[in-house]
Amino acid sequence: MTPVFRFAPSPTGLLHLGHAASASAVWRAAEAIGGRVLLRIEDIDPQRSKAKFATAIEEDLAWLGFRWDGPVVRQSERFDFYAAALSRLDAKGLLYPCRLSRADIAAAAPPAAARDPDGAVRLPLGGARPADPDGPAAHRLNMAKALGALGDERLFWREEGVGAIEARPEFWGDVVLARKETPTSYHLAVVVDDAAQGVTHVVRGRDLYEATAVHRLLQRLLDLPEPAYRHHPILLAPDGGKLSKSRGSPSLRSLRAEGWSREDVLRAVGAA
After folding, report:
1. Residues facing 16 on adjacent strands
2. Whether the predicted model's global pTM rises above the 0.90 cut
3. CATH number of the domain encompassing residue 220
4. Which end of the chain is more exposed for a tag (fewer CB within 10 A), N or C?
5. Could you tell me if residue 130 is left (phi over 0), alpha (psi between -120 and 50 degrees) or otherwise beta?
6. Which of 142, 143, 140, 131 is nearest to 104 (CA)?
7. Contact by Cβ (8 Å): 132, 99
8. Is residue 103 domain-shared with residue 229, that is, in the same domain?
9. pLDDT (tens digit, 9 = 90+) per residue, 134-179?
């Protein structure tokens, strides 16, 4: 069976050197074992995702010499599939509606409240949970019930070059699986799409390492296949911070306009 990889950026801005480093890691890993690469546009955020950025992603990847197999998959066209997965979890009694914002949760939390790997106060709050306000509801995974559904089974994922890593999704608390404004979340959409596209190898940044625990739990609850994982180091800015659109990191397009070549970009990310 041919190994299947994927590159899955969000069209919320132009690609920068960090994206080039990640794309290079995906395509090099696929080339090393004769795999193929799919392109998926993760545009579930209706407020921030823009069609012009999705077009620019394809153009920038082509300029860098990265070719993908098959048509581009856009998550905004797959909401029915995420709703079906959500319904399966709901039928198992593993979801509950929640109207609390992050600010609501943080305000109700004691000073020493547990936090998830992203630094947010995590639900549940051990009985200190405030009442839901009025308005639209997100849907959260009841982590205690989800882990209870596994019984004594321990979860692991396969980290290439390392081996079996124990997954500890409880550190995330009751994660959101469908947002108030969108009928899915990153966690749910990514596992549904990886399975639907037959992805066998996930190569992505180290910043998503901890999230793999949630993804393994969802794969198990939804009876989805488990890919192998590789989390590569994140390319940092000169000040030590993460390259990002929000911090104004120079885009590949701006570098190209300044005279950078494809080879210059690949050298800058250690891929040439």
Report:
1. 251
2. yes
3. 3.40.50.620
4. N
5. beta
6. 131
7. yes
8. yes
9. 778 899 999 999 999 999 999 999 999 999 999 999 999 999 999 9
Q: What is the rounded CA–CA span in Å between residue 210 and residue 116?
A: 10
Q: Are 64 and 22 in contact (CB under 8 A)?
A: no
Distance CA 26, CA 13 (A): 20
> Which residue type does 56 have?
A
CB 54, CB 43: distance < 8 Å: yes
My answer on whether 183 and 251 are in the same domain is no
Residue 175 tokens, joined: 């994660």
User: Tokens at residue 150, please?
Assistant: 């596994």
Residue 262, φ and ψ in degrees, nearest 5: -55, -45
Q: How far apart are the C-alpha atoms of 262 and 63, rounded to whole Å?
A: 7
Domain that holds residue 186: 78-234
- pLDDT, residue 261, reads 96
Residue with tokens 């180091």: 233
Q: What's residue 129's pLDDT?
A: 56
Per-residue pLDDT reduced to its tens digit, 219-237 = 999 999 999 999 999 887 7
Output the DSSP codes for 125-190. Answer: -TT-PPPP-SS--EEEE-HHHHHHHTTTPPPEEEETTTEEEE--GGGG-S-EEE-SSSS--HHHHH
- State the pLDDT at residue 75: 98
Same domain, 256 and 192: no
**What is the layout of strands, in order, in the sheet containing 176-178?**
95-98, 138-141, 176-178
Domain count, the chain: 2
249 DSSP assignment: P
- Residue numbers in the chain where pLDDT is lower than 50: 127-128
Confidence (pLDDT) at 101: 84
